[in-house]
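Tokens for chain A. Residues wanted.
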């Protein structure tokens, strides 16, 4: 198991994941992020929040960026492995 940190880029800045989560693979971390992203974005719209999520960034324990999970205008989420 490896620890992955999922940071959230918003229109107001970066929300840093200080704790991280453990997953077996990067694909598992991306899948979990995609699921969470749908809920976070839907909740923000439902609650009228003005802070829009633009992207989720997955880093390893050394701060190395492993993947970007952008959120497009239709609230679709894609995991882009940049490694």
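Reply:
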């Amino acid at each position: 198991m490896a620890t992955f940190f999922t940071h959230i880029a918003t229109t107001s800045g970066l929300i840093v994941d200080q704790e991280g989560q453990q997953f077996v693979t990067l694909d598992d971390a991306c899948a979990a992020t995609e699921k969470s992203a749908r809920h976070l974005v839907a909740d923000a719209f439902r609650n009228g929040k003005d802070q829009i999520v633009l992207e989720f960034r997955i880093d390893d324990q050394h701060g190395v960026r492993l993947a970007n999970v952008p959120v497009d205008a239709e609230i679709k989420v894609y995991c882009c492995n940049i490694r």
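The mean pLDDT is 83. The helical segments are 26-46.
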